[in-house]
Structure formats: structure tokens, C-alpha cells
Amino acid sequence: xxxxxxxxxxxxxxxxxxxxxxxxxxxxxxxxxxxxxxxxxxxxxxxxxxxxxxxxxxxxxxxxxxxxxxxxxxxxxxxxxxxxxxxxxxxxxxxxxxxxxxxxxxxxxxxxxxxxxxxxxxxxxxxxxxxxxxxxxxxxxxxxxxxxxxxxxxxxxxxxxxxxxxxxxxxxxxxxxxxxxxxxxxxxxxxxxxxxxxxxxxxxxx
Length: 206
Prior knowledge:
The protein is mostly helical. 78% of the residues lie in helices and 0% in strands. The chain has helices at 3-25, 28-35, 39-45, 49-74, 79-96, 98-111, 115-139, 145-168, 175-190. The longest helix has 26 residues, at 49-74.
């Protein structure tokens, strides 16, 4: 088995262990057992638990980024469709990638105590923020950069807030209704921009 496939096997096992025991409860021997490997095999590729966890976080984020890229390429070329991708993807993550979603939040908790993980988590969140801000800038180049920054912050909060509430009590609310309202709130703010009027950029029936 090549290096890449072996690393994938280890990281997949790590996701299962973290989902079951949380990051604090995760141990190398548990990952080895899940992957049906010796602990020494795990340590050959990842010398420390922190190195393995950072690689796991990178794997999750890379999967999310690749998924978003594909969704963006397949979506109609309108601003509304491109912007809505972020909410659509988050809903899919909540419903279909619960382990990855919960593990991502576990990294946030760890980041409060460990600077390396915290810095890494900040960078990962910045990827979402930048993607949102860049989408707005692409379609509304005359919009206020400060506004784009805060819209990206708010949208990220909306998405993460949905995960926090839904994952603790599945079915507590309708994700379609939630994200549709989020989208309308964002559009209401965007419509205040001089370069973005309903008759030009955002249809009034959006």
C-alpha cells in the first residue's frame, strides 16, 4: 500500500475515533486499532497526536473546499446562485457529513487552549471568509470592502450557528427555512449598496 493510501487509511480511522471519543479522548492506540494497524505504523507517518490531528483538520477542510469548488463550477453564473452555494453546502455538511462537522468544532475548542491548533483553525475559517468576500467583490466590484468583510463574518456565523444548534438536537428546526431566511437577510444588507439595486443585480423575487 502506497504512502498516500496508508495516510488516508489512518486519517479515516482518526476521524472515526475523534467522532466517538472527541479530540481529548483520542489516543494513538485507538486510531491504530480502528485502522487495524500497529501504533508504530501510525507514528511512522505522524510522529505526534498533534501532527495527526492537524493533518485530519486539513483533510476535512480540503474536502470542503473541493466540494465548494465543484458546486461553484456547476452553479448558474448568477450572483445569487454563487452566493447561495455557501449556505447550500453547509446544509449538506450538516446533514451528510456530521462527523466532519462535529470534529471541526472540536478543533475550535482545542484551539482555545493550543496556539498551534488555534492558528490553524483561524486560517481555515479565513478560507471561508475570503471565499465569501471574493464572491461579492467579483459580482459587486464597487461594493464597500468593509461591508464585504462583515458580510463574510456574518454568513460564517450563520452557518456555524446552524451546526451548533442542529447537531445538538437533530430536527429541532428546518434547515431549508433557516438558510432561506439567512440568505434573505444577507441580500437585504447587500441591497443597501449603491452599486447593487434590485433592478440591476438582485432580482426582487429572489
